[in-house]
């Protein structure tokens, strides 16, 4: 699928977008899943077709369907929401390649620690007024100061999935 994306400013449609995480715990026997309920973002498609933008996720909005676990995830052992209430991803460059593949280079900031992050997203829908990107990638939580691992129960990388719907706001 080849899609022409219009230049201009784009806003994240928070009602049509989702960001979730998946991580194996209990020595890899249980997969914990959660979603961020409060997300925001905007971007700009430049005349050359490249794009830049920022996404934010409110840490306190992470819901794993277990209140006790969610409280622990917000604590200093993990996300430290009191001191770092948001996770941000700044896309410094996004380029459409090979039809529907979007190569994204940016910076992810979690707990006040910023790390470079490159990923590939798929443009699943796009027209003059809206576009949808889907991606899945993994991050090493140790790189962001989240090394808490009681009895070795939590190992490996965390998978992030996102379906992001953007609507065009200006030309």
UniProtKB/TrEMBL annotation:
Gene3D superfamilies: Lipid/polyisoprenoid-binding, YceI-like. This is Polyisoprenoid-binding protein YceI. It comes from Streptomyces africanus. PANTHER family: PROTEIN YCEI. Residues 9-167 form the Lipid/polyisoprenoid-binding YceI-like domain. Belongs to the UPF0312 family.
